[in-house]
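Design a sequence for this backbone.
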C-alpha cells in the first residue's frame, strides 16, 4: 500500500513538474497566454509555447526514460553497478558516429544531409552498438568491475582523440556546431524529430519489456535460465539492441548527457531495496522523467542564460559515482 501511495505521489509530482517546465523560461508569459494558446492572435506567443517550451519538456521526458533504462539494462547485462552509457564509453562511441557524419559530410560536400534525423540517429546507433559489442567481449575476458570501467574510460579517450582529429580538418562552422551539441541541450527539436525520438524510445522500451523475463531468470545463473527456456544469445542481443537504441536516440537528439543512466537506477535500487525487476523498472521510468524535468527547470531558472544540461548531470552524477565506488570497494577489488 505504501509503495502504491508513493507511486501515485510520484505521478502527481510528474504532472506538477511538467506544468512548471512549460511555464518557466526567460520570457514572461501570463496564464491567459496558455489558456488562449489555440486561438491566440499573438503568433509569437503560440510559437514560443507550442514549438519551443512544449517540445523541450517532452524531450526531457524522453531522455528521462531512455538513458536510465539503458543504464539499467547494462547493469543487468554486465552485472556491474557502475555500468551505464557514459561510464562504459557507449555515449562516446555514439558521439563518434555523429561526429563522423557531421565532419565527413562537411568535408565531402554533403552538408545538406547534416540535419537529417535518420542519418544522425543511424550513425549514433552504429557507434553505440559497436561500443556494447566491444565491452561485452571485454567483459567475457576480464572479471574485475574496475577493469571494465577503466576500459570504458580508455575507449572514451580514444573516441575523443578521433573526434579531435576530424575537428582538426573540419570547417570551423561544423566544429562550432558539434561543440554546441556536445554541451547537451533539451531544446531545438522539431516535432518531426520528437516523433522519431519517441518512436526509438518506444521500440527500446518494448525490447526491454520483452527481455525482463530473461533478466530475472539470468539473475539465478545461466544454467537456471537455460532450464527455463531462455535463449541466452538471443536475450543478450535483445538487451544490446535496446541499450544501443535508447542511448543513441538520446545522444543523437540531445547530445552526450552523462550519469543519468547510472544515478537513477542506483537511487531506485538503494531506496526500494527490491529484487523485483518489474517494480524496479516502473520506478526507474517515473524517477527518470521527474529528474530530467527537474533538471530542465534548473537550466531555465539559471540567472545567466540557459545552463547546458550536461553540466548539471555531471555535477550531480560524479559524486554519486564516487559514492558507489566507495560503497562497492570489495567488489571492485575482486
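Sequence:
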Amino acid at each position: 500500500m505504501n509503495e502504491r501511495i508513493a507511486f501515485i505521489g510520484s505521478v502527481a509530482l510528474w504532472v506538477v513538474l511538467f506544468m512548471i517546465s512549460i511555464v518557466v523560461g526567460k520570457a514572461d508569459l501570463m496564464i491567459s497566454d496558455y489558456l488562449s494558446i489555440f486561438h491566440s492572435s499573438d503568433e509569437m506567443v503560440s510559437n514560443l509555447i507550442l514549438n519551443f517550451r512544449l517540445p523541450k519538456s517532452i524531450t526531457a521526458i524522453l531522455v528521462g526514460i531512455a538513458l536510465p533504462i539503458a543504464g539499467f539494462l547494462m547493469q543487468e547485462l554486465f552485472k556491474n553497478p557502475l555500468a551505464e552509457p557514459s561510464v562504459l564509453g557507449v555515449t562516446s562511441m555514439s558521439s563518434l558516429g555523429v561526429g563522423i557524419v557531421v565532419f565527413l559530410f562537411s568535408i565531402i560536400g554533403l552538408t545538406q544531409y547534416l540535419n537529417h534525423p535518420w542519418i544522425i540517429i543511424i550513425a549514433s546507433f552504429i557507434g553505440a552498438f559497436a561500443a556494447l559489442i566491444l565491452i561485452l567481449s571485454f567483459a567475457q575476458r576480464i572479471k574485475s568491475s574496475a577493469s571494465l570501467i577503466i576500459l570504458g574510460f580508455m575507449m572514451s579517450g580514444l573516441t575523443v582523440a578521433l573526434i579531435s582529429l576530424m575537428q582538426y580538418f573540419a570547417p570551423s562552422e561544423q566544429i562550432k556546431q558539434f561543440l554546441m551539441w556536445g554541451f547537451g541541450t533539451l531544446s531545438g527539436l522539431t516535432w518531426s524529430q520528437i516523433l522519431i525520438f519517441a518512436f526509438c524510445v518506444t521500440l527500446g522500451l518494448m525490447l526491454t519489456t520483452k527481455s525482463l523475463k530473461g533478466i530475472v531468470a539470468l539473475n539465478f545463473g545461466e544454467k537456471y535460465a537455460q532450464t527455463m527456456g531462455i535463449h541466452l544469445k538471443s536475450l543478450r542481443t535483445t538487451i544490446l539492441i535496446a541499450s544501443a537504441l535508447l542511448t543513441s536516440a538520446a545522444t543523437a537528439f540531445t547530445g552526450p548527457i552523462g550519469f543519468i543512466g547510472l544515478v537513477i537506477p542506483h537511487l531506485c535500487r538503494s531506496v526500494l531495496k527490491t529484487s523485483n525487476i518489474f517494480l524496479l523498472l516502473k520506478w526507474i521510468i517515473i524517477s527518470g522523467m521527474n529528474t530530467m524535468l527537474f533538471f530542465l527547470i534548473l537550466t531555465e531558472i539559471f540567472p545567466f542564460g540557459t545552463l547546458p544540461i550536461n553540466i548539471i548531470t555531471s555535477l550531480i552524477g560524479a559524486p554519486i559515482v564516487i559514492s558507489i565506488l566507495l560503497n562497492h570497494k570489495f567488489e571492485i577489488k575482486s
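Confidence is low (pLDDT under 50) at residues 330-334.
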